[in-house]
Structures are given as C-alpha cells and as structure tokens.
Amino acid sequence: MNNKINPKNLANRRYVIAALVVVIGIIYVVQLFNLQLLSPQYRDYADSNAFLRRTLYPARGAIYDRKGELLVYNRPTYDVMMVVREMTRFDTLDFCNTLNIDIERFRELDAEMRDSRKNPGYSSYTPQLFMSQLDIEEYGLLQEKLYKFPGIYIQSRTERQYNHPNMGLILGYVAEVDQNKIASDPYYVRKDYVGKSGIELSHEIDLRGEKGVEILLRDAHGRVQGRYNDGKDDKAPVSGKDLTLGIDIELQAYGELLMQNKVGSIVMIEPETGEILAMISAPTYDPSLLTGKEFSSNYQSLVNNPYKPLINRSVAGTYPPGSTFKPASGLVYLQEGIITPETMYSCFGGYPPLGGRPRCHGHASPLSLQYALSTSCNSFFCYGLNHMLSNRTKYSSVGEAFNRWRDHMVNMGFGYQLGVDLPSEKRGFIPNSKFYSNIFKTERWNAHNVISIAIGQGEVLATPLQIANLGATIANRGYFYTPHVVREIKGASLDSEYTTRKYTGINPEHFELTVAGMADAVKFGTCRGINLEPLVEVCGKTGTAENPHGDDHSLFMGFAPKDNPKVAIAVVVENGRFGATNAVPIARLMLQKFFNGEVPESDKWLEQTIMNREILPYVYTRNIPSK
Fold this sequence. Notes:
Elements: H1 7-38, H2 40-50, E1 51-56, E2 63-64, E3 70-82, H3 92-99, H4 103-114, E4 128-134, H5 136-145, E5 152-162, H6 168-171, E6 174-176, H7 179-184, E7 193-195, H8 198-202, H9 204-208, E8 212-218, E9 224-227, E10 243-245, H10 249-258, E11 264-269, E12 276-282, H11 295-304, H12 313-316, H13 326-335, H14 369-375, H15 378-389, H16 398-411, H17 433-440, H18 464-475, E13 479-481, E14 486-489, E15 501-503, H19 508-523, E16 539-545, E17 553-560, E18 567-573, H20 583-596, H21 604-612
Parallel strand pairs: 2-10
Antiparallel strand pairs: 1-8, 2-3, 3-4, 3-5, 6-7, 8-9, 10-14, 11-12, 11-18, 13-15, 16-17, 17-18
Helix pairs in contact: 1-2, 10-20, 13-15, 13-19, 14-19
C-alpha cells in the first residue's frame, strides 16, 4: 500500500481550506456590516443612544374666499410621543390624570402603539406616537411634569379651524390617515392627518406642505444636550400653499340659509372664467364639527342623518333635468338642420302623435323654437327628436341619428364628469343607441319609444353642476371653462384644464336664438318670477322633473345679464314641485344678493317665506337635527 501523500493533492486541500476561511471571513464581515449599519433595529439602537430625531410638521395651507376673507386656518395642537427603550418606571396613574384618561385607555393606546400591524415600522428605539390632539391646557400640564416621565416627549403640529359655519362640503375635512394611504404614499406615517373630502382631499398635495426634522444630541443617560451639529443637519418644514377660492362666502352663507330645511342644491358659476361663486348642497354641516376630539361622535351623527349631509349633491346628486334640458335639445336640432328658427310645430295640450303625451299646458299653437322655450312647450321638442331620429336622408339608421344627438349632449357637458376640482363628482347619464337596443332587444326602435328624453326625462340624468354649466355655456354662446372652486394657488399655476375653453361645436348664432327664448321666458313665460328689470335682464328656464319617490323636483337654470353675463345659476329643490314654485324664488333672491349685495325691502317677505319653508320627504320629517 502506498502511503505517500501526493504533493499536488495536499496543495489543493490547502487552497480549499484557505478559500473556505476567506469565504467565512467575508460572510462574517458582511453580516457584521448588515447588523451594525443596515439593520433597522441596530441602526435605530445606535442612533437612539446619540440622537433624538423630532419630526417638524408644516403648517397646512390657509384657505381664503375670492375677496380675501380667511376661511380656514391652523391652531397649534400637541402629540405625546414615547421612546419605549428610554421609559423607566414612573407613576402611571399621575401620567393618566395629567392626560385626563383612565388606566384602561392608557393600556389601549400603548397596545395600539406597539402593534406593528397598526403601526408599521414600530421601533422601541425611536419616538412613537402615543396620543394626539392635546389642547394648550393639557400641553401645559404635561410640560410641567415632563421630567417625571422619562421617555415621554411632546411634538407640536397644527389643527384646522374655521371662521364661518359654512361650506363644510366644499372645504371638506382632515382626519387620521388610513393604512391604504400609508402604503401608497411614504410621506405619511401612523396618526398623520390627511384631507379626506372636499378641497382638503383634492388639493392635499398643495395644502400639506413638507415635513422637516430636528436632530437633537443626547448624552449617555439619554438626556438632550442640544442640537446636533448646531442644527446644520436639520431640515426646516415647508408650509403648505395657501388657496384662494372663487367662492364668495357671503353669497355662500346666504344660499345655505335659503336652503335650510330643504334638500337640493344651488350652483353659481362665473361664465367668463368657470369659477364657482357659490355651491350649496342641502343639507350641509358646520365644518368645525369634524375637528378635535369630538370628531368621531360628530361624524357618526352626520352619517346616521337620513338626509345624508356628507353627500355633496351639487356634484354627486343626479336628477332628471326636466325642462332645463330643452335649450340643449333645441340647440342640437338647430345644429343638425332638423329645424330652423322659423320651424313651427303644433301642440294641443300635449304631443299629438302619441295622443297628447307627454302632456303640456295651454299656449298658442303652432309655435317656433323661441316661443317654445318661453312657454316650455313639451310637444315642440318631442317633434324635434322624432324628426331627427326618423330622418333617413341625413342618417342611415336610428342608431346613427341618436348617437349624433348624444355626442352633442356630451360636448355640452352632460353624460361625463366635467372635471371639477372636487372629489366624488358623478357623471350623470346620457344614453347611447346601444343602451336602447339592449333594452328593446332590437335595433329597430324609434323616437316614440324614448320620447321623454327630449324634455329631460326618462333615462337622462344630470348633476346640478352640469345644469349650471349649461347656463354658463349658453351665456358664453357656445363654450365653457371646466367649473372649478380654487381660483388661485399661492406660488403655483392652475392646471390648464381650468383655463382652456371647451367648445360645444354648435354655431354661435344658434345660441342667440336660444338666449332670446330664455329672455322671453323671464319676461312673458314660465320664469316671470325672476324678472329683475331694471336691475338686470335675466335669461332663464324652469324645470319640473318627475320623481317616482314623491313630489316632483323643482328646477331653474339661467344666467344674467343677457349681454356680457356675469353669473350662471342652477337651483334644484327636491320634492319642490313646480320650477316656478321654489327654484325660481330661490334663484331670484340669490341673483339679487349677487348683484345688489342685499335683498331689497320689497322682497323681504319672499326671503322670509323661503327661509321658513320646509320641503322634506315625509318619511324623513322626524328627529332631524336642525342646522
């Protein structure tokens, strides 16, 4: 047997052993590097021995009305922060009494803070939020005793405050950030506050600003010795941007008074810019209810209110527009050449081809478009739709004709979101030909199957904002700006979406005829109740929308003055019956407030009548808190 060791094999073994030693060494060094420098736990521990990082919260941007009136501002509030590793035994009962909580609440807050599911990124080495929203008195008491509670710190931030009890649905509210937001945006951590609705949500990025950080140096006992590196590594917070709204707070507050004890909406738009001057949704709420420690109970009360005051009906309520839709129908017929200004249709108390349905009220017959608008004739617009959908010279099929009608309506701002700078906007509904082909199980349907859409009934739905936007479009003779609440962002420009004209594709001369018909409606027709001459010449159109759940809805759409218009307006009063009964008087008072600054003595009786009038569905008339 040969016991000689091959020198070559021996050398190979030595190389393998040396390589293993090197690899193990590298692994050890990498692991040591990871533990000491990359591991959050060890890094936090090392940092916590020497540094205390305090988040500096920025002031949220203030909000002003169009005249510079301060609407929303900030006041200081304070958070209780804990560094668990620094907490030694202290008098828990004294701590609870100082914060005005019981021991059970202390345990709940402590458990929530330590729960990594509810508090992602929890570390016992870094400051964690224990309790938020201390007021100035609670802060003072805790500050005096802070030396008794090692590991406890106070962090300052701000809380929203309001100068007026109005505009709750427009301004929106701020509340604690949820887990989804934390996961989607690394800016936020547990217990941060974020805009949840209204402008606070839609302009969150503008309003929130940027957080800063303050790095404090500590000794071996954890005591703060001062600012690290003389503050050179600190980052100052950047305050949020201030917003100026197009809203006039006086006009807004007046509209809310008129709509108390009612359900519905008022929207007023400046046609020249698309700025929203007033947006009332009834019922509404005082924005100060959704601040501070009473937030949860107040929010639940609003949620439980059967009138749903947290829904902004101006953008999220959808209604049959009724006769306020007739000007849009007439414009389509003119543009498509279905009618001319001289076209005459008959009416004998209703639409003759269908035996007088839809019904109509008494007026001269036959009549042209201008007179049909002033008298709100149903028959005229039904004839127009029938002649358009049955025209095989111009359109190859009823589907092609109907889709052309639909496209015009979409270009006038119906059927899709307008793009207002507020959340929760609904699109309303404008059907297309496929919708009806699916319903009737055939493509061989005709205008008489869908005749009610000609007068804003049937399947057609619109938001009050869309109805007001139609008024602005007619006022501008064929174009509109996307309606928007925010007029100016300090230090930034408005999105071009709100400064670019949207053309309808309908010839301006057709709008002149429509304007004449709406002016006649105010002087001689269904809108006589809003005639404000010689103060201003108003153009308008009433609407009475059928409602299967109770009394009909009362509507008005218009603008003023006739030439060089300054304001367009839409009013919707749910269950308000005829347009002339409630929507017209409310619009009259709002326009007087807009042009005069006050209502004249001659109309004070009307003001009091409207303010005192309660129009509520019977099922909701019990136990409804008054505004």
